[in-house]
Design goal:
mainly alpha, elongated
């Protein structure tokens, strides 16, 4: 089959079959991109960076910690430091309510076919678009 012939194959049916197989054998849940969570931390907690660089670095590392115990230790260290303003603490507490969707230590057991950040998804989409259009 040439690329020209492949373009005529309806991807909707292929997508449906693949997704059906994945859903049949794996549980699914919505995960958030750790890179984007970190970017949100960068923009919403920039005041911490100016005042307390070490605490700020601990916060930025949170999405990529692979051990639950270390993750919880980092959180405790952040709370114990008392370096966050009331508004920053409130923001971080809200984010931590969804840690099971973005912290690597909680998402590493979820099937994601090796695509755990949206940059990889965007790159794959770009390659497919290039070859299928």
């Amino acid at each position: 089959m040439t690329v020209t012939q492949f373009r005529k194959v309806p991807l909707i049916l292929c997508d449906f079959i693949i997704v059906s197989g994945i859903l049949k054998h794996f549980s699914s849940r919505m995960l958030l991109c750790g890179w984007h969570v970190q970017r949100n931390f960068l923009s919403n907690l920039s005041g911490v960076a100016k005042k307390h660089k070490e605490t700020y670095d601990e916060i930025l590392d949170l999405p990529f910690v692979t051990c639950e115990k270390k993750f919880e230790e980092k959180i405790q260290k952040i709370w114990d430091s008392s370096k966050l303003s009331e508004q920053e603490e409130k923001y971080l507490r809200e984010k931590l309510k969804t840690k099971y969707k973005w912290a690597k230590c909680y998402t590493k057991s979820s099937f994601c076919a090796g695509v755990c950040t949206t940059s990889r998804v965007e790159g794959l989409r770009s390659v497919l678009k290039k070859h299928l259009n």
